[in-house]
Each structure stands twice: as C-alpha cells, then as structure tokens.
Amino acid sequence: MLQAILPDSLATEYALENEQELVGDSDTDLEDDLLSKEEDTVFAKNMTDANAERTFIAVKPDGVQRGLVGEIIKRFEQRGYKLVAGKLMVAPKALLENHYKDLADKPFYSGLVTYMASGPVFAMVWEGKEVVKMGRKMLGATNPRESAPGTIRGDYCIDVGRNICHGSDAVETAQREIALWFKDDELCDYEFADKKWVYE
C-alpha cells in the first residue's frame, strides 16, 4: 500500500519509523503490564494471607425445598465473601452421623440425622476475613424465634427443627466439616475480582 502512494525512499523511511515506534510502544506496554501484574500478585498474596479463613455453610432440606439457596448465596456474596465450593447432594447417613457426632448423646440426634438425609442439601465453602464468626451472625440464632430480623433465620424461618441452614461455629470446626464434605480438588482457588473493593 505504501509503495502505491509514496515514492520508494519515503515509503521505506516511513515504514522504518513506524516499526521503531511500534517496537518502542510494545516494550513500554510490556513493562507496564509486568509491573501491574507484579503489583496485583503482591496484593493478592497479602489478601490471601490476611483473609484465608474459610467456613462451611449448608442449606438444609427445608431451605432447598423452599427455594432459598439463591437468597442465602446472595447474602454472602453481597457481604463480600468468596464462594470457593458448592454442590447439591443427598448426604449419606454415615456422613451426617460423623458431621453431628458431637450431638450423638442428645435426644434429637437420630431425628436430626434422619431429617438431614431426607432430601437434597446444598453444601458450600465460603472464604474471607473472619468469615466463620460473621457467617454465624448472618445465619442468626439456632432457634429462629430468637434470631434478629435481618438475619437469615430471623427472616425466613420459625421452628428450630426447620432452621434452614448450618454454619461452622469455629475455625477448627470449619476445617473438619470442609474436609468431611469436600475433596481437595473441589475447592476452587481463584482471584476474586471484587477483593480490592471489599478489603483495604
């Protein structure tokens, strides 16, 4: 195209100048990209180190049947927490007995296990700063009638036997429950796009 509209000498000179200009821009852009990626990597590492706490949250059969899975996910997402695992499943009895083994001496234990195995459960792992403590606050008191309005149980349920969700009560408990319900390769480690707008 240059040969058609410019003399040979001018076309050659223009092409060389344009090539140098493009190379110069490319090098500058590459350096900027590398610096930006390096800064993002450092930021992401700091975020991961500071906010790597995870919790186990499960929507019980009553919550699934009432179509509340999406609403519960929405609340955790809007809070700023990151979903790293989730699956719908009918939990085997052996899994539930292990999960609730600390309640084995309670009179309601057998009924609880039977109920939890009666239909699909939506199991999740959430990640973020103090997510175990804040997750419990978001769920509300175990007895829904003692839960404040604005909490999940305070807004969506009445009876303790139909309190729609479970949340780990301590970091150590969360680690045990996550290991019970999920394999390592089911947990997704990824960069959360909103992290810069959630954490300082």
From TrEMBL:
GO terms for biological process: CTP biosynthetic process; GTP biosynthetic process; UTP biosynthetic process. Residues 52-189 form the Nucleoside diphosphate kinase-like domain. The active site is at H166. ATP binds at K60, F108, R136, T142, R153, N163. Its EC number is 2.7.4.6. It comes from the Eukaryota. HAMAP family: NDP_kinase. This is Nucleoside diphosphate kinase.
